[in-house]
Specification:
Distance between the termini of chain B: 63 Å
Oligomer: heterodimer
Structural class of chain A: alpha/beta
CATH architecture of the largest domain in chain B: 2-Layer Sandwich
Radius of gyration of chain A: 19 Å
Number of domains of chain B: 3
CATH superfamily of the largest domain in chain A: Response regulator
CATH topology of the largest domain in chain B: Heat Shock Protein 90
Shape of chain B: rod-shaped
Shape of chain A: elongated
Number of strands of chain B: 12
Helix content of chain B: 40-55%
Radius of gyration of chain B: 49 Å
Strand order of the largest sheet of chain A: 2-1-3-4-5
Strand content of chain B: 15-25%
């Protein structure tokens, strides 16, 4: 994918650019708000990573300006301000996701991919049916089937599986699940998510030869056909 | 106390005045009598017995209504001269000073009984002479003084009593004021100060001294907080760099075992960063006033979401998880922070309760509060450590082996305080009972309140 990074901190910028390049992305970098806006407006990117605090023009103003020109490129806001109100402000200001420094690269990459996936599909037509291998989900009837077998899920388990299926083939981090499935932004002291994942796994994978829900060490989970 | 001191000093003063006045007056009387005796003795020496008699007669005649009293008798008590006829009781036996009452019976020319004081002499030859004075006037004055003093004492006592009560009342009020102010300060509002009335009395000085002490405590506390917060802040950047470099390295490492080792180092760095972040977050919350994210929301839903999230964890530990939630309880607050608080508490409850134990979560409504209770049957907290666990990095001795950074409850406390609530820990025997009281409506300026 083509990524624009607007970040003034040299270390963070280098970390981002190198990391993204290594995972086979094309990266442009601007160290200053105005340069960044110029690039964002003139080039076509799949996703943009914008720091909030920038010289000459702050991140939120850049996003507002871009959005005013009907540019819907997904934006991930980076910020050293970890407070929730900053997060809310960033998301209201037109950002699509928000990540606090310091962040792990896997977390960033997972979120970027989630943003990319959301980009085109979050439009007109409503998805009513999801499937990964022989696992099928009917979003209208709210039923799940693996092969011919019907699987009973609790409402939250359903939402968890729905999110995983929508991002099938991508790494999904624990924080992303907490934010998207549980709707709370907080730091769990223990890995509560693991408990829920293993319950879900016991329902959808346990009695089947092919395991779909995998744990990615140090990152999160992936629901995928290929092991 | 002051009243007694004051009254007794007045009493002593009055007593002295009385003693001095009465003493002076009776001295006067005695001196007059002595002077007269000296005069009469001279007459007697110069002119003999007859001269003495005539002088006495002359003096009586000159001033028949006077205050002087004379009686001169022969050996057989026959009156030779004088203005009374008989010897007063006792006067016929002894010599010296004598107090008696003048009455018509003694041959006194006045109807009323008058007190008198006299000196009795034995003149050589068995003759007796009495020279005295009517002291009724002196007695009257003495009585007047006595009455004045009694009356004065009564007034003094009354005034002292009223003044004392008023003084002790106002003293008590000032002391009470200082007491209640210090109580409020002790319960956490360190920005409060003891009021100063501007009268510059001892209480004002006490208040000022206490306030200065408080200022100093606050400065010291802020200093400590600053140091720890600055350390956290300043170390975060290099630590982030270290972490990021490690992560970059990890991606380049070929061998799986090496890669896992680096991944562990990254995880350690993440743990450290999380601790720093928690510390900074608490510091920000404690700085207070961050009500920007306050919304009105359904607390019942929040509690059941937290319960749903953790119920599975408890079940994995074979713990009984009981839930009792009163529906549709709305409060004003920061949803994410309260969720964090609740999950911290439930997480602790599950963590410190052994397999097979019980954990319960309750939400109910009182008149003005929402009451959240988290109970467990775990290892609990020793009684003397109950109030310490909210301190940063404080960990109960027997839980040190379990994972945690000692900041969870500090954060909980900061959040509850921010919501103007109250958290109490009590021992459940066995286990711990955490009770959170949250006001349903936090008084914050309307314009800062966003609707959900």
């Amino acid at each position: 994918m083509r990524v624009l990074v607007i970040e003034d901190d040299k270390d963070v910028a280098a970390y981002l650019v190198n990391g993204l390049k290594e995972s086979d992305n094309v990266v442009d970098h601007a160290a200053d708000g105005k340069d960044g806006l110029l690039l964002a407006a003139s080039e076509n990117y799949d996703v943009m990573i914008i720091d909030r605090m920038l010289p000459s023009m702050d991140g939120l103003s850049i996003i507002k300006t871009i959005r005013a020109t009907d540019n819907d490129t997904p934006v991930l806001i980076l910020s050293a301000l970890g407070d929730v109100d900053d997060r809310v402000e960033g998301l209201r200001g037109g950002g699509d996701d928000y990540l606090t420094k310091p962040f792990s690269f896997t977390e960033l990459l997972a979120r970027l991919e989630a943003l990319l996936r959301r980009g085109p599909s979050s439009g007109s037509e409503q998805v009513t049916h999801l499937s990964v291998a022989d696992l099928e989900m009917d979003l209208l009837a709210r039923t799940v089937k693996r092969g011919a077998e019907k699987i009973d899920l609790q409402p939250r388990e359903f939402r968890l599986l729905e999110y995983l299926m929508k991002h099938a083939g991508q790494v999904v981090t624990r924080t992303m699940l907490l934010e998207q499935v549980w709707d709370y932004h907080f730091d769990p002291q223990t890995n509560v998510i693991d408990v829920h994942i293993s319950r879900l796994r016991s329902k959808i994978d346990k009695d089947f030869p092919k395991q779909l829900l995998q744990t990615v060490r140090g990152a999160g989970y992936i629901l995928s056909e290929d092991p | 106390m002051y009243m007694v001191l004051f009254a007794s000093s007045v009493f002593i003063l009055m007593g002295f005045i009385y003693w001095a006045t009465a003493g002076y007056m009776s001295n006067q009387t005695d001196e007059t009598v002595e002077a007269e005796i000296i005069g009469l003795a001279e007459q007697y020496q110069r002119q003999g017995l007859n001269g003495l008699i005539s002088v006495i007669r002359e003096r009586v005649a000159r001033d028949p209504n006077g205050k002087a009293i004379y009686l001169f008798t022969a050996r057989d008590f026959i009156k030779l001269a004088g203005n009374i006829d008989k010897w007063p009781e006792g006067g016929d036996v002894q010599e010296g000073w004598l107090n008696f009452n003048l009455s018509p019976e003694l041959g006194w020319h006045k109807e009323q009984i008058h007190p008198a004081r006299a000196r009795v002499f034995i003149v050589p030859g068995g003759l007796r002479l009495l020279v005295g004075r009517d002291v009724s006037e002196f007695m009257a004055v003495k009585q007047l003084v006595e009455r004045a003093i009694n009356f004065g004492m009564a007034i003094t006592f009354a005034l002292a009593m009223i003044g004392g009560i008023m003084m002790s009342r106002s003293t008590a009020r000032r002391v009470e004021l200082i007491n209640s102010a210090s109580q409020r300060i002790m319960t956490g509002n360190l920005s409060l100060r003891i009021p100063d009335r501007g009268t510059n009395d001892e209480f004002d000085q006490l208040a000022r001294n206490l306030n200065e002490m408080l200022d100093r405590i606050v400065t010291l506390m802020e200093g400590i907080k600053h140091v720890s917060d600055n350390i956290a802040h300043d170390l975060r950047t290099p630590l982030t760099r270290l972490r990021n470099q490690l992560e970059s390295t990890m991606m380049k490492v070929e061998r799986q075992s090496d890669r896992e080792q680096v991944a562990e180092a990254v995880a350690e760095a993440d743990q450290l960063l999380a601790t720093f972040n928690a510390l900074l977050r608490i510091a920000r919350l404690e700085m207070g006033g961050r009500v920007a994210n306050f919304t009105s929301f359904n607390l019942s839903e929040l509690v059941s979401d937290a319960a749903e999230l953790y119920e599975a964890v408890a079940e994995d530990k074979n713990q009984k998880f009981e839930l009792s939630i009163e529906e549709n309880l709305t409060i004003t607050g920061d949803k994410d922070l309260l969720f964090q608080t609740l999950t911290n508490l439930v997480d602790n409850a599950i963590k410190y309760t052994p397999e097979g134990g019980a954990v319960s979560l309750q939400l109910r409504k009182t008149k003005e509060h929402a009451l959240i209770e988290v109970n467990d049957s775990g290892i609990g907290i020793p009684e003397d450590e109950l109030d310490k666990v909210f301190g940063r990095f404080y960990r109960v001795a027997k839980s040190r082996s379990l994972p945690g950074n000692g900041l969870g409850l500090s954060l909980v406390n900061a959040v509850i305080e921010m919501h103007q609530g109250k958290i109490t820990l009590t021992n459940n025997l066995p286990g711990l009972r955490v009770e959170i009281k949250l006001p349903q409506h936090v008084s914050i300026p309307e314009k800062e309140l966003k609707t959900a």
